[in-house]
Design brief:
The complex is a heterodimer of chains A (262) and B (231). Chain A has 2 domains: 63 residues; 181 residues, no CATH class. In chain A, helix 4 packs parallel to helix 6 and helix 6 crosses helix 9. Chain A is 76% helix and 0% strand. The longest helix of chain A is centred in the C-terminal third of the chain and has 33 residues. With 262 residues, chain A is an all-alpha fold. Chain B has one domain: Rossmann fold. Chain B has a 6-stranded mixed β-sheet with strand order 6-7-8-3-9-10, with helices on both faces. Chain B is of the alpha/beta class and 231 residues long. In chain B, a hairpin with a 2-residue loop joins strand 4 and strand 5. Chain B starts with 9 loop residues before the first strand and ends with a helix. Classes of the chains: A mainly alpha (262), B alpha/beta (231). At the A-B interface, helix 7 of A face helix 2 and helix 3 of B.
């Protein structure tokens, strides 16, 4: 229907973005009726996301012609931004940005390095940056989920944690059930994505490969490869971030710093 | 001529203990000592800092200034886990860990590599009136039973001092009497050194020989329970 009214690709794109944004905002209104206030966060996230992706799209042509070594800088910049974004899910947790940045750098970075070195990811900037960014973005989401779950559990179980401390438990041991729960919960989306691949959804990368003329079977296998890499990068990130953050919620004298109402 | 009475040794001494958070003073310049075998009640109105003071004694919170000496040693020099084993805390809510009563009793000693045998578990449970409860799932305990398990769990660590934070305030009247009587029995039979935080003046008088009254984080009275609590 939109194609009937808008003929220029730019106008069509903006109209499509507007319709999709209206659908997203309708959900925000529904959430508000149920007492969940996501208005400001969603509006900012949508506006930011649109501006960022348009900006990246605009400079992509230049970036994709840049020399190979610039990929490293681009991916490093993405890791820092991803660390800052997911650290916001760990409000009140000391050192959340550092933990997030290191975890994503280690989790996504090591999988990117390994896969590039064995030839699973092509070293051409046109391949390395988009695939690398997918791994980093998913590692960021997983990290945010892990930290958010860990924070909620620690706040909800401060009494149990302090009881364990009062009985002489090691600080790290006193939060180990919540570390494990956060790690497991953070990987649910990645596991579900792999489980439902091809049945519930056909990811964008595969659709893009098919549109650009790749063989369907190769496109399908490569999509699985990408999802497996996403799982590996996300899992490693979550493992590292939950390991690092558990020590940060305690003082040197093994006092629980993250407390309800503090 | 009778021999002079030798006072029991001081086990715990708070010296200029204070804690403030951002814009609020929780405890101001608290000074007191506790002798072996003594039962001290800390009482005062709601929000006067009773629990804050107990948390400072156990070092679950850090003093802003001042310190506590445990058997003459500054507690900042004692490894936190060892300190908390020595100053066992019973919290207002029991917070039992999932599993059996015996699992809960084994928790503390297991932290330092000690396995509590069935005999020791039964003895601890007998002291709090729950002799045959070792194999019970904690999910099936009443509030009073859970709090008595919590007391036994703290005793399993053989603490020098037992810190009780409003141990009966979350219980109904019948359970409150059960728990109080269990505490009284254990304290008397073992000659335990205790600090009991309670807002209930009558309970303070029943349990303690000495009382300390807090108001707005400051110790306003300290002395024999009969005199202090009557004032």
């Amino acid at each position: 229907m939109l194609r009937l009214w808008f003929h220029s690709p730019l106008q069509l794109g903006l109209a499509q973005a507007l319709v999709a944004a209206i659908a997203a905002l309708a959900v925000v209104v529904l959430a508000r009726r149920r007492g969940v206030h996501l208005e400001v966060e969603t509006l900012i996230a949508m506006a930011r996301g649109l501006v960022q992706i348009v900006a990246v799209g605009s400079i992509l042509v230049i970036l994709l012609r840049a020399p190979r070594w610039t990929s490293g800088f681009l991916l490093a910049g993405m890791i820092v931004a991803a660390g800052a974004t997911s650290a916001r899910r760990a409000k009140g947790m000391p050192g959340a940005f550092r933990v997030s940045a290191w975890a994503i750098a280690f989790g996504a970075g090591s999988i990117i390095a390994l896969m590039t070195s064995v030839g699973v990811i092509d070293t051409a900037i046109t391949s390395l940056v988009p695939v690398g960014s997918m791994l980093i973005a998913n590692a960021m989401n997983t990290n945010g989920l892990a930290l958010n779950r860990f924070r909620s559990d620690v706040l909800a179980h401060a009494g149990e944690i302090e009881t364990a401390l009062a009985l002489g438990a090691d600080a790290r041991h006193s939060v180990s059930p919540y570390v494990q729960a956060a790690f497991e919960a953070s990987l649910i989306p990645a596991i579900d994505s792999m489980r439902s691949l091809g049945i519930v959804w056909i990811p964008g990368l595969m659709a893009g490969m098919l549109l650009s003329g790749a063989r369907p079977v190769y496109a399908a296998i490569y999509q699985f490869v990408v999802l497996a890499m996403i799982f590996a990068a996300s899992g490693l990130t979550s493992l590292v971030s939950t390991m690092l953050i558990r020590g940060r919620v305690f003082s040197d004298a093994e006092q629980l710093l993250l407390q309800p109402g503090r | 001529m009778s021999a002079p009475l030798i006072p029991a040794p001081v086990i715990l001494r708070a010296e200029h203990l204070a804690r403030s958070v951002i814009d609020k003073t929780l405890i101001q310049d608290a000074n007191f000592e506790l002798r072996k075998g003594e039962v001290l009640a800390i009482t005062g109105p709601s929000g006067s800092g009773k629990t804050s003071l107990l948390r400072l004694l156990n070092r679950l919170d850090e003093p802003t200034s001042g310190t506590v000496f445990v058997e003459g040693q500054d507690y900042r020099g004692i490894e936190p886990r060892e300190l908390r084993r020595k100053l066992g805390l019973v919290t207002q809510r029991p917070y039992l860990f999932p599993g059996t009563v015996a699992d809960n009793l084994r928790f503390g000693p297991a932290q330092r590599g000690v396995t509590l045998g069935p005999g020791a578990i039964e003895e601890l449970l007998t002291q709090v009136g729950l002799k045959h409860y070792a194999g019970r799932d904690v999910a099936n305990l009443s509030g009073g039973e859970a709090q008595r398990v919590s007391v036994a769990r703290t005793l399993a660590n053989s603490p020098l001092v037992v810190l009780l934070d409003e141990p009966t305030s979350a219980l109904d009247e019948a359970s409150k009497l059960e728990v109080e009587s269990a505490i009284q029995k254990v304290v008397q039979s073992q000659g335990l050194t205790c600090v009991v935080v309670t807002h209930d003046v009558a309970q303070a008088a029943r349990l303690a020989g000495r009382a300390l009254v807090l108001e707005s984080g400051r110790v306003v009275r300290d002395g024999p329970a009969e005199e202090v609590l009557r004032a």
